[in-house]
Amino acid sequence: MVNLVKRFNPDKRRRPKVDDYFGDWKWREGLAETMVPLVGKLYRNEVNVLMYGRPLLNCSAVEIMKLHRFVREVEGNELSEIETFPVLEHISKMKLLPCEIDLGEIVSYLLENEKLDPLKYVENLLSENIRTKRSYPLRPKDIVLFGFGRIGRILTRLLIADTGGGAKWRLRAIVVRGSGNPDDLIKRASLLRHDSVHGEFAGTIRVNKENHSLIVNGNEVFVIPSNDPSKIDYKKFGIKKATIVDNTGIWRDEEGLKQHLKNPSVEKVILTAPAKGKIKNIVYGINDEKAKPEEKILAAASCTTNAIAPVLKLVDDNFKIVNGHIETVHAYTNDQNLIDNYHSSDRRGRSAALNLVITDTGAAKAVSEVLPDLKGKLTANAIRVPTPNVSLAILNLTLKRGVGVEELNDCFRKAAFRSKLRETIDYTNSLDAVSSDFYSNEFAVVYDSQATISNFNSVTIYCWYDNEYGYTKQVVRLLKKVIGANLTRYPKQ
């Protein structure tokens, strides 16, 4: 690693001893600017570059620098653009098959093992993924969203952003309720373009009234008005063997969701809500091995289940949970009323914007389905609060043995960055973390290391989760698995 540092740092400065802070910043800023087109080039060739799980695509130079800073804070190393740029440059020259490459993990490992030749290490790491021939289907998988509410619009953003070169899948259509008035397209385009919580859409959206479609970053997405999923003529739009992501919540049982499968153009269905009956609820990263190819209908469970299941699994695997209670402090949702009005559920009829609302949650029961070993050990309740997004799960757990805060934090830090749970668990050590810090966080859950409490074998764990964006990202991960579009991530865990 030292030779590469000298090559790309002509002043021979070692970062811990920098005196010229401005000069050091400008030098690293220049390297970060040079990284931007390399990341874009790799993306168009179906190679996604990450920095400890966070995508570098569409990041500005300063945002790339901030991600380097994040790694330095959580790992306690001196990772900088001076070390990562030459590695990225070398990767960009390799002919790779579609994959994900965590640049931060690779270079952090090299910093810990300075005797390794960085470029040879990278070549050996990726040797199995060298492109020798086209190894993925010429026709990408067709994706159709059934519904265009909060989750539907975030799904659209994520799927478009993750299209890459278009070889794996394409978002082909969005099914909406209504008569198909062309003027509705303008409103729907505006809702996709502007979001009060997650900000402006990263790209361009054009309305094609003649085709009744939206052109989103070059992807033509047909907007199909229909209330009957079995009667939609998908063939008219060239859609075949589609996977439907039903985000309406209208049907949650097999009988209702099977209506999609009556359509000859539909192959599989994913529900973005907890399912009823025999349909399997899947939390990606925890029990997604149950998402077998023969399964025609699967559910992505709830946002809360996706958030707490990884935490509970990690704690139970390492310390064994005897029993516990989970309290979720949940942002209000469309299910509640802005002002007091009738609601079928107790308390939820009261104004969401003015009250803390105690309500029930099926999280404990849902977790026992995903993690059978915890059946009967947990209780759960929820409080809806007047914030538009990001929720907090407070887990009060009794463990089989005593454990201190430092041991718990170390366990979660390693899991977040060096384990198979790295896609689902994020980690923060910020002393000033508040809910708005986690808007648009792509992980299922964020472990708050500064809030952890331990009293021998009784622990309290605080976990943030973006109940919209983080959950929807989990849906996308499950979708990729279902359609066979999951990318191998390097380094492997």
Automatic annotation (TrEMBL):
Its EC number is 1.2.1.12. InterPro entries: GlycerAld/Erythrose_P_DH (IPR020831), GlycerAld_3-P_DH_AS (IPR020830), GlycerAld_3-P_DH_cat (IPR020829), GlycerAld_3-P_DH_NAD(P)-bd (IPR020828), NAD(P)-bd_dom_sf (IPR036291). Pfam families: Gp_dh_C, Gp_dh_N. The keyword Oxidoreductase applies. The keyword Cell inner membrane does not apply. Residues 141-303 form the Glyceraldehyde 3-phosphate dehydrogenase NAD(P) binding domain. It comes from the Bacteria. CDD domains: GAPDH_I_C, GAPDH_I_N. Keywords: Oxidoreductase. GO terms for molecular function: glyceraldehyde-3-phosphate dehydrogenase (NAD+) (phosphorylating) activity; NAD binding. Belongs to the glyceraldehyde-3-phosphate dehydrogenase family. This is Glyceraldehyde-3-phosphate dehydrogenase.
